[in-house]
Amino acid sequence: MISGSTQLICLFGSPVEHSKSPAIHNTAFEALHLNYSYLAFDISKEQIAQATEAMRVLPIVGCNLTMPLKTAVIPYLDHLSVASTLCSSVNTITNKNGVLYGDTTDGIGYIHSLRAEGFHTKGAVMTCLGAGGAATSICTQAALENFDSIYIFKRKNATYENTLSFAKNLQKETNCKIMVYDMADTSALESCIKKSTLLVNATNVGMGDDTTSLVDKSMLHPDLFVSDIIYHPSMTTLLSDAKAMGCSYKNGSDMLLYQAAASFHLWTQQEMPIDLIREKVFSTTI
Ligand code: NAP
After folding, report:
1. Would you say the pTM of this structure is higher than 0.90?
2. Distance CA 260, CA 278 (A)
3. Rounded to the nearest whole angstrom, what is the distance from the C-alpha of residue 260 to the centroid of ligand 1?
4. At what angle do helices 274-281 and 253-268 cross, to 10 degrees?
5. How far is the CA of 230 from the centre of ligand 1 (A)?
6. In which band, very low, low, confident or very high, does the pLDDT at 167 lie, cut at 50, 70 and 90?
7. Are 249 and 241 a contacting pair, CB within 8 Å?
8. Strand order across the beta sheet in which 7-13 lies
């Protein structure tokens, strides 16, 4: 029940109307009898300065950020976590007495979802397809969690240099070896996948009605864990190919769930009831 002491937590982004975050967090608040409410607000880049100021004034105790605000919000925050600094991305703000702390839980959520499947992260070798917001958060957390090497494949376009700078800095700040390749270099892709224990698709390829995959099925091997952070559809062509080739595989629904759980913990210091949320909010899992 909403009362005079109910505390507000928000999602800022655009569009937000199809987000699962309100259902995830409100279900968890109800299950744990926590007096919070989570609402989504359609906020543009031009409005983010006012939205963060509103957090301090009202006060809103925390929020999630989604497209297109994860980087745009940074100038309006007081503190950034190590991971957010390395990947220039914030998906969670915690308001402590008017001081705004920015963090990213996308990478943490991804790593937790792998561990839940029994994947060993220490010393892992990862091939990452894509270098956008989700990919850089994942690579950052992987490097912080002692992955041995990361091979990033990205189209050679206007943002290629940015990816090179990101990789160079991440390698300097961690013990992880990080290399960047042109996505069009299929022989490099084949050789990197051969050396990898993990392949992640962090691009939009395979999402919705798109039935293409960036990886030829013949490149997959049974020692490879294949993950696609897309969760709609729950079984992309990449994952169907992985299944056919005898690989372990996972879609992106648990990444979404575990990143929410990490944000939830930052705001409430409570553990999200993961199994209950999976059952109530996610109808399809693989
Ligand atoms: P983003 O910042 O726009 O990055 C998209 C990346 O995909 C870029 O690196 C882009 O390449 C690459 N890409 C797009 N089309 C491509 C193509 N045809 N060939 C090769 N590369 C292509 O988006 P994002 O926020 O990282 O999201 C990426 C995907 O992850 C989306 O499908 C999103 O739904 C999913 N996601 C899932 C979760 C989860 O919790 N499971 C969380 C966040 C995102 P360029 O760099 O060359 O442009």
Report:
1. yes
2. 12
3. 19
4. 130
5. 9
6. very high
7. no
8. 36-42, 7-13, 62-65, 92-96, 99-103, 79-80
